[in-house]
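hiii so um. not sure if this is the right channel but i have a protein structure encoded as tokens and i wanna go backwards to a sequence. like what aa goes where. can anyone help
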């Protein structure tokens, strides 16, 4: 009797594991051939947290997008970041809003993997505190990025921002002279994975 109960228990565990494996395979299979359509929408976000030593950093960047057709999507985003360095007694916080246009130009791995280029334009307000000194500035940014989506199911995908190809930043301090920076990065193959950013996308 004891052997029978043990066998039934093992069978139940095996059956549950098999069912979960079958469900996982079904979900993965559902992403094969996945395509975008006009009217599809997505929410996407990334979170970065870094602690250790004398520096603590955290930031998040939620996005909302709407597909105009199977290649083009437009949307808006909000970003916030906070960086604190104890040895310098400094704290920097950044809040930004912006819009973007995204174009999907390549599909691989049975259309699970989709590469895109994204152009963005945003406004940011930056506040830096060093000791008792406070500095506030406003910024206008424009950039062109390359990224990837890998769909695990027909709704969920991992997002990788691989490289910032082109960027422009104009900073206007409330007390001080304005500054403008422009950067063009055409040597992608040497640093495309230098600082990849990871996020999650949900399509509906």
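sure thing!! here u go:
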């Amino acid at each position: 009797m004891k052997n029978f109960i043990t066998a039934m228990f093992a069978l139940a565990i095996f059956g549950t594991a098999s069912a979960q494996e079958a469900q996982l395979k079904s979900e993965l299979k559902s992403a094969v051939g996945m395509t975008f359509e006009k009217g599809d929408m997505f929410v996407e976000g990334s979170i970065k947290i870094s602690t250790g030593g004398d520096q603590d950093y955290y930031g998040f960047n939620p996005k909302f997008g709407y597909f105009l057709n199977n290649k083009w999507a437009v949307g808006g985003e909000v970003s916030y970041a906070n960086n604190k360095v104890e040895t310098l007694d400094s704290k920097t916080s950044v809040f930004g809003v912006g819009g973007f246009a995204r174009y999907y130009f390549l599909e691989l791995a049975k259309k699970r993997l989709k590469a895109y280029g994204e152009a963005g334009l945003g406004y940011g307000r930056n506040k830096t505190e060093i000791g008792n000194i406070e500095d506030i500035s406003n910024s206008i940014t424009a950039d062109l990025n390359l990224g990837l989506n890998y769909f695990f199911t027909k709704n969920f995908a991992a997002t990788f921002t691989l490289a910032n190809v082109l960027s422009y930043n104009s900073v206007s301090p409330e007390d001080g002279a304005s500054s403008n920076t422009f950067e063009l990065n055409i040597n992608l193959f040497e640093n495309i994975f230098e600082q990849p950013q990871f996020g999650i996308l949900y399509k509906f």
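oh and Strands lie at 41-52, 55-67, 72-85, 90-108, 113-130, 133-151, 156-173, 179-184, 197-203.
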